[in-house]
Amino acid sequence: MSTNGAPPETPGQPEPPSVVRRLEGESAAALRDLVETFEELQTVLRCCERLVTEVAGRTHPDEVVVEGVWTMALLSYARSFAERRTGATLTEEDLTSAEPETEVLKWHKVLLHLRDQHTDPVASPRERFTIAVTQGDDGAASGVAITSARQPMVDEVTVRQTGAIAYALSELVDKRIEAQQLVVFEELKGASKADLEKLETVELSPASS
Protein backbone atom coordinates (compact mmCIF):
# COMPACT_ATOMS: atom_id res chain seq x y z
CA MET A 1 0.00 0.00 0.00
CA SER A 2 1.41 3.37 -1.01
CA THR A 3 1.12 5.84 1.88
CA ASN A 4 4.06 8.22 1.50
CA GLY A 5 3.79 11.92 0.77
CA ALA A 6 4.68 11.59 -2.91
CA PRO A 7 2.31 10.79 -5.79
CA PRO A 8 1.37 7.09 -5.94
CA GLU A 9 3.71 4.70 -7.71
CA THR A 10 6.77 6.93 -7.27
CA PRO A 11 9.80 4.63 -7.83
CA GLY A 12 12.62 4.39 -5.34
CA GLN A 13 12.66 5.65 -1.77
CA PRO A 14 11.52 9.31 -1.74
CA GLU A 15 12.87 11.83 0.72
CA PRO A 16 10.52 12.62 3.62
CA PRO A 17 8.33 15.66 2.80
CA SER A 18 9.35 18.90 4.48
CA VAL A 19 5.74 19.85 5.28
CA VAL A 20 2.59 17.74 5.62
CA ARG A 21 -0.85 19.37 5.72
CA ARG A 22 -4.20 17.90 6.71
CA LEU A 23 -6.90 17.37 4.08
CA GLU A 24 -10.54 17.33 5.17
CA GLY A 25 -12.43 17.11 1.87
CA GLU A 26 -14.72 14.30 0.76
CA SER A 27 -12.05 12.56 -1.29
CA ALA A 28 -9.57 12.66 1.57
CA ALA A 29 -12.21 11.29 3.97
CA ALA A 30 -12.89 8.42 1.56
CA LEU A 31 -9.17 7.64 1.43
CA ARG A 32 -8.90 7.76 5.22
CA ASP A 33 -11.80 5.32 5.55
CA LEU A 34 -10.13 2.93 3.12
CA VAL A 35 -6.82 3.09 5.00
CA GLU A 36 -8.54 2.46 8.33
CA THR A 37 -10.36 -0.54 6.85
CA PHE A 38 -7.11 -1.90 5.40
CA GLU A 39 -5.48 -1.69 8.83
CA GLU A 40 -8.40 -3.57 10.42
CA LEU A 41 -7.99 -6.37 7.87
CA GLN A 42 -4.25 -6.48 8.51
CA THR A 43 -5.02 -6.87 12.21
CA VAL A 44 -7.27 -9.83 11.38
CA LEU A 45 -4.43 -11.42 9.42
CA ARG A 46 -1.93 -10.91 12.23
CA CYS A 47 -4.39 -12.39 14.73
CA CYS A 48 -5.00 -15.41 12.51
CA GLU A 49 -1.27 -16.02 12.16
CA ARG A 50 -0.91 -15.94 15.96
CA LEU A 51 -3.92 -18.23 16.43
CA VAL A 52 -2.63 -20.85 14.00
CA THR A 53 0.54 -21.01 16.09
CA GLU A 54 -1.56 -21.57 19.22
CA VAL A 55 -4.30 -23.95 18.08
CA ALA A 56 -2.31 -25.96 15.54
CA GLY A 57 1.19 -25.80 16.95
CA ARG A 58 0.62 -26.66 20.60
CA THR A 59 -0.82 -29.68 22.40
CA HIS A 60 -2.33 -27.46 25.09
CA PRO A 61 -3.08 -23.99 23.70
CA ASP A 62 -3.20 -21.05 26.10
CA GLU A 63 -6.95 -20.46 26.37
CA VAL A 64 -6.52 -16.88 27.53
CA VAL A 65 -4.36 -16.05 24.52
CA VAL A 66 -6.70 -17.83 22.10
CA GLU A 67 -9.82 -16.10 23.39
CA GLY A 68 -8.17 -12.68 23.56
CA VAL A 69 -6.63 -12.82 20.08
CA TRP A 70 -9.74 -14.38 18.52
CA THR A 71 -11.93 -11.67 20.04
CA MET A 72 -9.65 -8.99 18.56
CA ALA A 73 -9.84 -10.68 15.16
CA LEU A 74 -13.65 -10.75 15.28
CA LEU A 75 -13.87 -7.10 16.31
CA SER A 76 -11.48 -5.96 13.59
CA TYR A 77 -13.27 -8.04 10.96
CA ALA A 78 -16.66 -6.57 11.88
CA ARG A 79 -15.27 -3.01 11.87
CA SER A 80 -14.20 -3.54 8.26
CA PHE A 81 -17.90 -3.50 7.32
CA ALA A 82 -18.96 -0.67 9.64
CA GLU A 83 -20.47 2.60 8.46
CA ARG A 84 -17.75 5.22 8.39
CA ARG A 85 -17.67 8.93 7.49
CA THR A 86 -18.21 8.21 3.80
CA GLY A 87 -20.38 5.10 4.21
CA ALA A 88 -19.53 1.42 4.47
CA THR A 89 -16.10 0.73 2.99
CA LEU A 90 -16.90 -2.95 2.44
CA THR A 91 -20.20 -4.66 1.61
CA GLU A 92 -21.45 -8.20 1.13
CA GLU A 93 -21.11 -7.64 -2.63
CA ASP A 94 -17.40 -7.01 -2.08
CA LEU A 95 -17.17 -10.36 -0.31
CA THR A 96 -18.61 -12.30 -3.21
CA SER A 97 -16.38 -10.34 -5.58
CA ALA A 98 -13.23 -11.02 -3.57
CA GLU A 99 -14.03 -14.68 -2.88
CA PRO A 100 -16.24 -15.97 -5.72
CA GLU A 101 -17.51 -19.54 -5.84
CA THR A 102 -17.20 -20.02 -2.08
CA GLU A 103 -19.58 -19.96 0.87
CA VAL A 104 -18.10 -16.64 1.91
CA LEU A 105 -21.43 -15.02 2.84
CA LYS A 106 -22.20 -17.95 5.15
CA TRP A 107 -18.80 -17.53 6.83
CA HIS A 108 -19.35 -13.78 7.03
CA LYS A 109 -22.62 -14.20 8.93
CA VAL A 110 -21.03 -16.77 11.26
CA LEU A 111 -18.16 -14.39 12.06
CA LEU A 112 -20.54 -11.53 12.84
CA HIS A 113 -22.58 -13.86 15.07
CA LEU A 114 -19.42 -14.91 16.90
CA ARG A 115 -18.48 -11.23 17.28
CA ASP A 116 -21.82 -10.66 19.02
CA GLN A 117 -21.19 -13.60 21.34
CA HIS A 118 -17.71 -12.43 22.27
CA THR A 119 -18.85 -8.87 22.96
CA ASP A 120 -22.01 -9.73 24.90
CA PRO A 121 -21.92 -7.57 28.05
CA VAL A 122 -23.41 -10.37 30.18
CA ALA A 123 -23.15 -13.87 28.69
CA SER A 124 -19.74 -15.56 28.65
CA PRO A 125 -18.60 -16.93 25.28
CA ARG A 126 -16.52 -19.65 26.95
CA GLU A 127 -18.82 -21.44 29.40
CA ARG A 128 -22.49 -22.00 30.24
CA PHE A 129 -23.57 -22.72 33.82
CA THR A 130 -26.64 -24.56 35.09
CA ILE A 131 -27.97 -24.67 38.64
CA ALA A 132 -29.65 -27.98 39.49
CA VAL A 133 -31.16 -29.81 42.43
CA THR A 134 -29.92 -33.24 43.46
CA GLN A 135 -32.20 -35.94 44.77
CA GLY A 136 -31.59 -38.74 47.22
CA ASP A 137 -32.83 -42.35 46.94
CA ASP A 138 -36.13 -41.29 48.49
CA GLY A 139 -36.67 -38.65 45.80
CA ALA A 140 -36.33 -35.73 48.21
CA ALA A 141 -34.04 -32.80 47.50
CA SER A 142 -30.57 -33.52 48.81
CA GLY A 143 -28.57 -30.57 47.64
CA VAL A 144 -27.75 -28.03 44.96
CA ALA A 145 -25.42 -28.80 42.06
CA ILE A 146 -23.63 -26.39 39.74
CA THR A 147 -22.83 -27.80 36.32
CA SER A 148 -21.05 -26.18 33.40
CA ALA A 149 -20.65 -26.78 29.68
CA ARG A 150 -17.35 -25.55 28.27
CA GLN A 151 -17.62 -24.02 24.82
CA PRO A 152 -14.99 -25.25 22.33
CA MET A 153 -12.13 -22.96 21.39
CA VAL A 154 -11.89 -21.68 17.85
CA ASP A 155 -10.43 -24.36 15.57
CA GLU A 156 -7.71 -24.18 12.93
CA VAL A 157 -10.13 -24.47 9.99
CA THR A 158 -12.15 -21.45 11.16
CA VAL A 159 -8.99 -19.43 11.75
CA ARG A 160 -7.55 -20.22 8.33
CA GLN A 161 -10.83 -19.48 6.56
CA THR A 162 -11.11 -16.15 8.36
CA GLY A 163 -7.55 -15.31 7.34
CA ALA A 164 -8.28 -16.23 3.71
CA ILE A 165 -11.29 -13.89 3.63
CA ALA A 166 -9.32 -11.06 5.26
CA TYR A 167 -6.46 -11.52 2.78
CA ALA A 168 -8.76 -11.38 -0.25
CA LEU A 169 -10.48 -8.27 1.10
CA SER A 170 -7.11 -6.65 1.88
CA GLU A 171 -6.09 -6.97 -1.76
CA LEU A 172 -9.37 -5.42 -2.88
CA VAL A 173 -9.06 -2.49 -0.45
CA ASP A 174 -5.40 -1.95 -1.31
CA LYS A 175 -6.31 -1.43 -4.98
CA ARG A 176 -9.01 1.05 -3.96
CA ILE A 177 -6.51 2.94 -1.82
CA GLU A 178 -4.14 3.33 -4.78
CA ALA A 179 -6.98 4.55 -6.99
CA GLN A 180 -8.25 6.99 -4.35
CA GLN A 181 -4.75 8.39 -3.78
CA LEU A 182 -4.71 9.35 -7.45
CA VAL A 183 -8.11 11.03 -7.10
CA VAL A 184 -6.93 13.08 -4.12
CA PHE A 185 -3.65 14.03 -5.79
CA GLU A 186 -5.40 15.09 -9.01
CA GLU A 187 -7.63 17.42 -7.00
CA LEU A 188 -4.57 19.06 -5.46
CA LYS A 189 -2.63 19.64 -8.68
CA GLY A 190 -4.24 23.03 -9.29
CA ALA A 191 -3.90 24.25 -5.71
CA SER A 192 -1.64 27.27 -5.24
CA LYS A 193 1.00 27.58 -2.55
CA ALA A 194 -1.20 30.12 -0.79
CA ASP A 195 -4.14 27.69 -0.79
CA LEU A 196 -2.00 24.87 0.57
CA GLU A 197 -0.58 27.02 3.34
CA LYS A 198 -4.09 27.63 4.64
CA LEU A 199 -4.30 23.95 5.57
CA GLU A 200 -3.43 22.74 9.07
CA THR A 201 0.10 21.38 9.48
CA VAL A 202 0.43 17.77 10.62
CA GLU A 203 3.28 17.13 13.07
CA LEU A 204 5.19 13.96 12.18
CA SER A 205 7.25 11.87 14.57
CA PRO A 206 10.89 11.37 13.58
CA ALA A 207 11.46 8.09 11.74
CA SER A 208 12.92 5.43 13.97
CA SER A 209 16.32 4.08 12.91
Description of the molecule:
By secondary structure, the chain is mainly alpha-helical. The chain has a domain at 26-122 and 155-196: Four Helix Bundle (Hemerythrin (Met), subunit A). It has six helices and four strands, in the order ααββααββαα. It has helices at residues 26-57, 63-79, 92-98, 104-118, 156-188, 193-196; strands spanning 83-84, 87-88, 127-135, 141-150. The strands form two sheets. A two-stranded antiparallel ribbon has the order 1-2. A two-stranded antiparallel sheet has the order 3-4. β1 (83-84) and β2 (87-88) form a beta hairpin. α1 runs antiparallel to α5 (156-188). The chain is elongated. The mean pLDDT is 86.
